[in-house]
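Standup notes
- HV: blocked on the assembly model, inputs below
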Amino acid sequence: MTEPGTPRNDTITVGSTGTQSSRRGRANLRDYVSTCREFSWDAARSQLAGLPGGGLNIAYEAVDRHAAGPGAHSIALRWLRADGGVVESSYADLAEASSRFANVLRAQGIKRGERIGVLLGRCPELYIAVLGILKAGCVVAPMFSAFGPEPVRQRLDIAGAAALITSEPLYRRKVAPIRDALPALRTVLLTDGGSGGVDLPAAMAAADPDYELTPTTADDPALLHFTSGTTGRPKGALHVHGAVLAHIVTARFALDLQDGDIFWCTADPGWVTGMSYGVIAPLCLGVTLISDESEFDARRWYRILTAHRVSVWYTAPTALRMLMRSGDTLPEGTDLGCLRFIASVGEPLNPEVVVWGERVLGHPVHDNWWQTETGAIMIANFAATQVRPGSMGRPLPGIEAAVVRRGANGRALVRDGTIDFAGVGEIGELALRAGWPSMFRAYWDQPERYQRCFVDGWYLSGDLARRDGDGYYWFVGRADDVIKSAGHLVGPFEVESALMRHPAVAEAGVIGTPDPVAGEVVKAFVLLRSGVRPSEELRSELTAFGRRALGAVAPKQVEFVSSLPHTRSGKVMRRLLKARELGLPEGDVSTLEGAP
Ligand code: ATP
Ligand code: MG
């Protein structure tokens, strides 16, 4: 970043222990270049079953096709209860329960195309409801169960949800207080009965176990996902049934999912990662998925990986940083012998974490990049190729990515109606050639905003990146987060990653603060590893450490904090750090959108 175009971490590779090469023979994607050359979405369509009478439905691909074949009694879902209990459901169980659920919706007068909010913790009813809603031809609007009443109201309102499925305690705490403000909401289904809604267990017991699937097509809406709201008010991105092809293909290529895998995606299905890869993709591929009712706990997580023989693990940088923070010595009894592949998504993955994964967990962490809008993984480090720590990897087969130049107004430069591409190493906006199957089809109720995302047949992601000479992409920052200091363009991620290389640092959040001379100066908020005390000496040491690593773009100010603000989906919320720094009310952080 000091010198755009000289990727600092290009030269570091992991996998020298031989784990990479021994896996190459078994990986789904063995030869990246030839697979990309030969791949076509049309040909990949043969991986779909399709509805018996024609058409496409995600729930059919996820459960019914298995329930009708030899996989019927394989374990689809292994639910780990907070109290230590384990509940398993086979593909046949999920197929039947979701058909009952679709019949319940029909009996309640819910019509095709209507949006149904799902506000549930991780429990079997969530999976059943999602599949049932899809079978009924309605649109799933997932919501994170830890949201308070206002975010719930906001999302149900944006979606114009006709029905909501939730539990009685969640209803009482989060929905009852705002129900009057939601005139479109006709029906509430309660997973444990209670006043205020339909008694779901009773309705399910009375419902027909067979349901003739609504004949949806690849272009019918299926999911309305809300973005994380990292840069402002969340947007509702609409996805169609046809997206399932991208879920299947990318789970094979980027997550290396194979027959017999035990797969754990730690993201909550209230977010796009938890839905695309925590529900849809693994079920479509017929593997066993793990769902943990509890929240993050280092010991519990190591226990889950060990006891449930997890082979593929998809998680997030924040969680990995927390595991790192708890030390390099794994709890006694931990055995990661079944683990074959670790991947991460959601925010930049510091090179330090990749290397730690290889050293302590026995595998490097494979970063991949995508967004709510893209519906599926677009750029990844693959199982059979060496990980480049700090890089997001290369585009998936079937995905064309590019870095485009931006003008002074921050928008992509277009000359004579054609987009202007950046050269190798040059920072620009990450763009994707429009038309992959899981591309979002609308921002709900915001057609102009949707249109603005596309220029000359390319989708503009709003993230800044650069591409090296080998075609690997390096994340620089969100267009809104980038700091301009004394003529340098500084991506907060690179500064954060440099600081994390210091043994005292567990996590860092970096922002620009106004400065009369430099425009902005780089300020770092630093969370120390457990047991390390803040001191003036440490502050000076970190400042010097940063200067050695980063030169002119090193943080001028370092502030120790006892915690860093994260979005509900676990991302460092730099805009909140900035609001605090500038003394703005935290509720007003959306005013920072587009701030220099
Ligand atoms: P909003 O759009 O509401 O501000 P959001 O962008 O955080 O929220 P998501 O769609 O959940 O909502 O997140 C996608 C974004 O997360 C990407 O655009 C990127 O900024 C970041 N991200 C995802 N994966 C990676 C990655 N591997 N490296 C760096 N950043 C990533
Ligand atoms: Mg976004």
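- HV (later): unblocked. The first helix runs from residue 19 to 24. The CA atoms of residues 76 and 288 lie 5 Å apart.
- Next: hand off to the docking folks.
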